[in-house]
Design brief:
The chain is mostly helical. It has one domain (7-239). The chain is built from twelve helices and no strands. The chain has helices at 7-27, 32-41, 45-68, 72-92, 101-104, 106-119, 123-146, 150-159, 166-186, 194-214, 219-223, 227-239. Helix 1 (7-27) packs antiparallel against helix 3 (45-68) and helix 1 (7-27) packs antiparallel against helix 12.
Length: 248
């Protein structure tokens, strides 16, 4: 394809590998899929864990293959696999705001979809999917911040090295929630392209804080959130006058 090996495509294909590696790391030793199969479908624990291991290995192989040789069929399968992972998280639940899993994962689901649209040369739809993935994810995080998600509170207090008390941290989270909400709205307007740079910075910061807070053993939590800032980088490049990918 004409644009198959440009920088935008390379970034998205790299993101596929990072995302799949994060999911592999999260689930290979047991995660939401085996828990769903065991608790909700009555499949034995050993079989559930085996199915999950096969699933994540296939997911990683598909991601690597799609990164090297992108085609719409493997990307569709990748999307289905990622959606299945989202469904398992939603069904198992057990965490705060688990009911928001579908929309919280929008940026991750947008990665294979955006690559399909890039291959098909549907650049307007391509940009729309990028914006949708970012804005819905930021909108979800805005709601969680406004509602003082306990995990967010812990990260914020930990980042401050315990200099913040819970009340002050809650107040700051509400401010962050408002900023995230504005970002989710303004990213749709090209004249506010500067907001995309903030979304890249904030997307990286909120992803990397998992590693900062808990060490490199929490790297998988960072990897699965790389779309939260890589999609922003891709969008900035796609909207750049120097990059003639699209005409909006």
């Amino acid at each position: 394809m004409k644009h198959q090996f440009n920088t935008v495509s390379l970034l998205l294909r790299l993101n596929l590998i990072l995302l799949a590696s994060g999911v592999f790391w999260q689930l290979y030793t047991g995660g939401s899929i085996s828990s769903m199969l065991f608790m909700n479908f009555g499949i034995t624990e050993i079989v559930s864990l085996t199915i999950e291991k096969i699933f994540v290995v296939v997911l990683l192989i598909l991601a690597i293959y799609s990164a090297v040789n992108p085609n719409i069929y493997t990307l569709y399968i990748l999307f289905v696999c990622l959606m299945f992972n989202v469904i398992s998280h939603h069904i198992v639940g057990g965490k705060h705001f688990s009911d928001l899993t579908f929309i919280a994962h929008f940026s991750r689901l947008a990665v294979p979809v955006s690559l399909v649209l890039l291959i098909k040369n549907k650049y307007t739809d391509f940009v729309m999917v990028l914006k949708l993935g970012l804005s819905v994810t930021f909108l979800t995080h805005a709601w969680e911040a406004w509602q003082a998600n306990p995990f967010f509170l812990d990260y914020l207090i930990g980042f401050s090295r315990m200099s913040l008390n819970e009340n002050n941290a809650t107040y700051i989270l509400k401010i962050i929630g408002v900023i995230d909400l504005l970002s989710a709205i303004l990213c749709w307007f090209n004249k506010f392209k500067i907001i995309l740079f903030w979304m890249v910075f904030w997307g990286f910061t909120t992803a990397f804080i998992r590693v900062y807070d808990s060490g490199w053993e929490n790297l998988a939590e960072f990897l699965v959130r790389t779309p939260n800032f890589i999609l922003g980088i891709v969008l900035i490049m796609s909207l750049s006058k120097r990059n003639k990918l699209i005409a909006l």
